[in-house]
Design a protein that fits this description.
Distance between the termini: 39 Å
Order of helices and strands: EHHHHEHEHEEHEHEHHH
Shape: globular
Number of helices: 11
CATH superfamily: Histone deacetylase domain
Radius of gyration: 19 Å
CATH architecture: 3-Layer(aba) Sandwich
Largest sheet: 7 strands, parallel
Number of domains: 1
Strand content: 5-15%
Structural class: alpha/beta
CATH topology: Arginase, Chain A
Helix content: 25-40%
Amino acid sequence: MTDVPAAALVWDDRFLSYDLGRWHPFSEGPRKLGADLVAQWAAAGEVPLARPAPLRAATVDELTRFHTPSYVRRVTEAGAAGHGEPLDRGDTPSFPGCDVAAARIVGGTLAAFSTVLGEGPSRAFQPGGGLHHARPDEASGFCIYNDVAVALSCALGAGTVRRAAYVDIDVHHGDGVMYGFYDDGRLLDIDFHQDGQTIFPGTGEPEEIGRGGGAGLKVNVPLPPGAGDADFAAVWDRIVPPLLEEHRPDLIVLQCGVDGHLGDLLGRLRYRAATYERAVRTLMDAADRWASGRLVVTGGGGYEAANVARTLGMVGRRLAGGPAPGHGEVLPDAWRDHFTERTGSVAPTEWEPVELPAGPSRIADGLVGELETALGRTFP
């Protein structure tokens, strides 16, 4: 085992204070279980894992690199009032201390960026982040602040990153990030999601390719309900490597929402662990080729605890230099006990294996054709 960590795990149990309510579908709890799983695996001596500390909340100056000052004031006032008023059209309620809780999530993602852009490991995993819907002046889709957009704005604005690539595989389109950088030629945005005609937020069509300096750098892949690993792989393998090679980013960011997983409570895609492992493996290789290894991976959506925890645990394990889980590989007993205590449900016994065949795709050619028409180019 090497003594030099390949990756940093960014987690703080205070992330759990981002609590939208007992009956709200989003919770940081499953993300904690994913963080705990990779931490326990690393603690068993498989690989070293860096843990940046202490983590802090983002400052107002940092938040306003992306969000408007008036919106940040509104969130601050709502956090002090604690009345539970909606910060959007109803999906994202405020709560006592919501301003600090949301800013702390942003602070975690800023710490992940600082780690890979500084003297730390070149890969960082922030499972509590990926709140990609928030707009500059409004909450949206369970997201009060947009941590990835703030961190990208800070890195690009400071000149520490000249070009970045943001890849989003959450079941919901990452509208807050895409529209926030729609004119920005420094950011390549590739977004795989369930077709917006069938799910929130209703955006992300292939024709949305960016504007001005950003034209041709916003790439949307709307998959129909029922699409699975083979469909994802057939499109991903054709478009993602050439797009990254052309852009040659200094930093790659993956929003790794797990709500595209088969059995999720909100999405209707049918991914298994193979899709998430493929995405991480591709982007690790791309980062090594063009970005000096710099890769930040956040969490995102995901509403079935066992799927979220095992998938994010696997992602962290791969980032740390570990192997993909194989058939029959057992999860740690201590972690399973913690899972049951936290969720009240029987914990899964094994890692989800990733050795699923890709197979043919009935939709890939049509989708790639739409992208080629929209972008005015061809893919291999």
